[in-house]
Design goal:
By secondary structure, this protein is mainly α. 57% of the residues lie in helices and 0% in strands. It is built from six helices and no strands. The mean pLDDT is 81.
Length: 191
């Protein structure tokens, strides 16, 4: 399995967003997503394990997409978006010029995909096989496109986001019980 990016590395990738607790939470979710993708690609799972992992990945990615739109709109406007629902965030981002029409169309497909989990779409129980690897890769593609379009928008518009000098919150903590503990935040050892 490939080495995971540290929280600081992920924060750097999303430099165009204002630094806040929301941005850190986004970085934590992306690090967790990378772990799950690594698990899926490094193992040969079958049956319910593979189906559950793919389902979790689709849900995780759609939550990140929604959250990324929310944080980006907040960064752009300086306040929370009017409506927090995913379809509304897609529309607001398209109208603001944050994303292209093609990406908006793809994100709306993903909204429909996620709606498969709604209880009204289920017969008697949750269909664990409701997502395929193809749909997972579609969501992953959308996440990469969204990140790239947001970077491009913020740099093209010349919107400079004030960034704090980020220091690892775990710096100075002694890892007495786990001497080989690698900090997920900065990738270092805190001894």
């Amino acid at each position: 399995m490939p080495k995971l990016k540290t929280i600081n590395q992920i924060l750097t990738e999303y430099h165009f967003l204002e630094y806040s607790t929301r941005k850190r939470n986004l970085a934590y979710q992306i690090q967790y997503l990378d772990l799950k993708i690594g698990l899926l690609e490094s193992g040969s799972y079958y049956g319910v394990i593979k189906s559950s992992l793919i389902r979790d990945l689709v849900i995780n990615i759609t939550n990140i997409l929604e959250y990324l739109l929310f944080v980006s709109l907040r960064t752009l406007r300086g306040r929370d978006p009017e409506n927090f629902r995913f379809p509304s965030l897609v529309g607001q981002a398209k109208r603001s010029g944050l994303i292209s029409k093609d990406l908006a169309r793809l994100l709306n497909e993903i909204v429909e995909l996620r709606n498969n989990l709604h209880p009204s779409k289920q017969n008697k129980e949750l269909d664990i096989n409701c997502f395929t690897k193809k749909e997972f890769y579609l969501c992953l593609k959308a996440l990469n496109l969204l990140k790239n379009e947001l970077k491009e928008f913020f740099s093209k518009e010349g919107i400079k986001v004030e960034t704090e000098d980020v220091r690892c919150p775990y710096e100075g903590y002694s890892q007495v019980l786990f001497s080989d503990f690698i900090c997920p935040y900065c990738g270092g050892y805190h001894i």
